Amino acid sequence: MRGVKTILFLTISNMFMTFAWYGHLKFKEYEWGKNLGLISIIFISWGLAFFEYLFQVPANRAGFKADGGPFTLVQLKTIQEAITLTMFMVFTIVFFKTEKLGWNHLVGFALIVLAVFVIFKKW
């Protein structure tokens, strides 16, 4: 159950992180965002990042083996990176319709999935 909670919270956390890091690139397309300065955009992104941390920290605490969770520190980071890339790919397809994901992106993603397998494999 802690593993499921960890993955769910990491997914939610990454949703906020992706919007904080890349969502502001779409602000200029909206009337309210056309004249925002860099400092305003940074504060909006920080606000989103706050919600990222509300999920990221509990996810890592619930998932970390030393705190009773099922994952090592390296496994937690690997899960987080795989979720981040997945979330980024979905975000790109949904919100940046002019950006196209090519075969090389899919191969790169497959290699990251392979990395997850290798890191979780008991040798």
UniProtKB/TrEMBL annotation:
<feature type="transmembrane region" description="Helical">
    <location>
        <begin position="76"/>
        <end position="96"/>
    </location>
</feature>
<keyword id="KW-0812">Transmembrane</keyword>
<feature type="transmembrane region" description="Helical">
    <location>
        <begin position="7"/>
        <end position="24"/>
    </location>
</feature>
<dbReference type="Pfam" id="PF04342">
    <property type="entry name" value="DMT_6"/>
</dbReference>
<feature type="transmembrane region" description="Helical">
    <location>
        <begin position="102"/>
        <end position="120"/>
    </location>
</feature>
<keyword id="KW-0472">Membrane</keyword>
<dbReference type="InterPro" id="IPR007437">
    <property type="entry name" value="DUF486"/>
</dbReference>
<feature type="transmembrane region" description="Helical">
    <location>
        <begin position="36"/>
        <end position="55"/>
    </location>
</feature>
<keyword id="KW-1133">Transmembrane helix</keyword>
<protein>
    <recommendedName>
        <fullName>DMT family protein</fullName>
    </recommendedName>
</protein>
